[in-house]
Amino acid sequence: xxxxxxxxxxxxxxxxxxxxxxxxxxxxxxxxxxxxxxxxxxxxxxxxxxxxxxxxxxxxxxxxxxxxxxxxxxxxxxxxxxxxxxxxxxxxxxxxxxxxxxxxxxxxxxxxxxxxxxxxxxxxxxxxxxxxxxxxxxxxxxxxxxxxxxxxxxxxx
Amino acid sequence: xxxxxxxxxxxxxxxxxxxxxxxxxxxxxxxxxxxxxxxxxxxxxxxxxxxxxxxxxxxxxxxxxxxxxxxxxxxxxxxxxxxxxxxxxxxxxxxxxxxxxxxxxxxxxxxxxxxxx
Lengths: 157, 117
Fold this sequence. Notes:
CATH architecture of chain A: 2-Layer Sandwich
Oligomer: heterodimer
Largest sheet of chain B: 5 strands, mixed
Strand content of chain A: 35-45%
Number of helices of chain A: 2
Shape of chain B: elongated
Number of helices of chain B: 3
Strand order of the largest sheet of chain A: 1-3-2-5-4
Helix content of chain B: 10-25%
Structural class of chain B: alpha+beta
Low-confidence stretches of chain A: 11-22
Distance between the termini of chain A: 88 Å
Strand order of the largest sheet of chain B: 1-3-2-5-4
CATH class of chain A: Alpha Beta
Mean pLDDT of chain A: 81
Number of domains of chain A: 1
Shape of chain A: elongated
């Protein structure tokens, strides 16, 4: 039995250290790969939105004559609560998750902060995880990009 | 020690540590995705410099995790004060773990070329 436990431990260690190491949303352009707030085993409520796929623009997609804005940033967050049912680290927890951490919300945040931006390109997407004692967690989608203003309309003749 | 590590609680603590999260406190930024530019997407020039940037997050004692290994941070480290755009980007993840994950350092390493925006 002890040998079996040691073998399981060794296998778990090996698996954890050699886990897939790419960014989880890499290749987002075509594949649906959501990042959702995790929750406890006993989920009382769940009303959460997370990022899944976003085909971002590259510099060549920027319209000719558009004025470039240096950098824009939008954030959207999911939140989770988890409470243990007993005073033990291995006890079951009850909890839930809520919030909108999706791309649409993050891009709306950019539009709100930079109403002059007509579009964005060179988009980096990062995830910020915050957790305090495991009771309260947030998972935020941070969209950082270069923005551009729409090119001026041609003068009427 | 061995018994502690092979108990369910020991396994839980160990896996929590290796997952890059702290049991008591976690505040980390990690990369999710970036549609990088190819040479055809930018005004590439033969003398565009090759740059490298690294951004790291750490965890200690399986209890605490902190740091910023985001694409944005790595890109800013690579470009420094240059007003440029990265293209032909290679993104790597470097993990260093010691003493059964008591200290883990995960870094996003970007290598690419910097073109004028």
